[in-house]
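Please complete every field before forwarding. Incomplete forms are returned to the sender.

SECTION A: IDENTIFIERS
Entry label: holo-387
Bound molecule: pyridoxal-5'-phosphate
Molecule representation: SMILES string

SECTION B: INPUTS
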Amino acid sequence: MRIYFDHNATTPVDPSVVELMARVLREEFGNASSVHHFGQRAKAVLDEARSAVAALIAAEPSEIVFTSGGTEADNFALRGVAEALEVTGRKHLITTSIEHEAILNTLKVLARRGWQTTSLPVDADGIVKPETLAEAITDRTALVSVMHANNEIGTIQPIGELARIAHSRGALFHTDAVQSVAKVPVDTRALGVDLLSMSAHKFYGPKGAGALFIKRGARVSAILTGGKHERNRRAGTENVPAIAGFGAAATLAGRKLDVEASRLRALRDRLEEGVLARVPGTAINGAREPRVPNTTNISVDGVEAESLLIALDLEGIAVSTGSACSSGTLEPSHVLRAMGLPTHRTQNSIRISLGAGNTDAEVDYLLGKLPAVVTKLRSLTRTGTRG
Ligand SMILES: Cc1ncc(COP(=O)(O)O)c(C=O)c1O
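SECTION C: PREDICTED COMPLEX
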């Protein structure tokens, strides 16, 4: 038995997406920039995918720029705005302490180049309070970037309100929606954002395909320069099969979203209740609502997250710690730390992220295995068998 509970890391590619990509790879090999028949066929594939991706987030197709994924989209938003707005004298960027590394590490680079940066705190629930943005923003702020849903705990930020505050001071607003697109409805107009990042592999599309939504008129410089691809906004011959897969995954997601969100919410909530009831010393991290329906982050007292992850993997259950693990030492999650959780909780938490294919029987299997696994790890820790 192998159970995959790590859909926020990546998802299996939907079989219909695989089929489409294989066909495009075989048959639509033209360069989408070529004027001849082969090129125009490839361009038609791109156009169709662009419309599908735009429809999923209530955008215009011309506002979608394809990238190599979420990381590039985040880099594009931050570096592209920084380059475009530097001449205006706005040299301040605002983000939050719980962003993905694609944002945090890009901001560090910009800070080294002389940009003033501010990292907004979150409350104990993992939510950014709009007042903290109102206090931090100035007339020199070029861009505010706040993620829509957090990858570790799933909480959803009040993007509409935050974007209004940014605009009231003349700043642009970007949201990293990599973990919210296809899990909850995402409407660029209702959110009021200028820029939005997304990534296909988080919703049953291929890895290495993503997009940055750039609202018509928003000033963003290209960061990849070269040919005139993507209306001069992102150079490089387009990966037509991957983009076709991205478009197909977007269409599927739009069709299934409501039904799948309710199904996963019910499954996730039952899983949480089951864990809290059966395993003493457990707690859910972050606000229960608003939250994406597939994600839960659970602290287990007296058990190192990494040991729990390995023990569950031996039982055939794949979960995640949701934080970086390097050279055998588990770094406490920067998200849980930003929420002010004590060390014993930041180091003892696992992320379970559900997705298509997960069933009631799989949740029952986890609930059946977890109590004994935790009891065993706790006894090993107590008797000092493990250092
Ligand atoms: C919130 C968030 N942003 C950005 C990324 C990066 O996306 P990609 O893997 O497509 O580069 C991820 C992926 O884990 C993510 O969770």
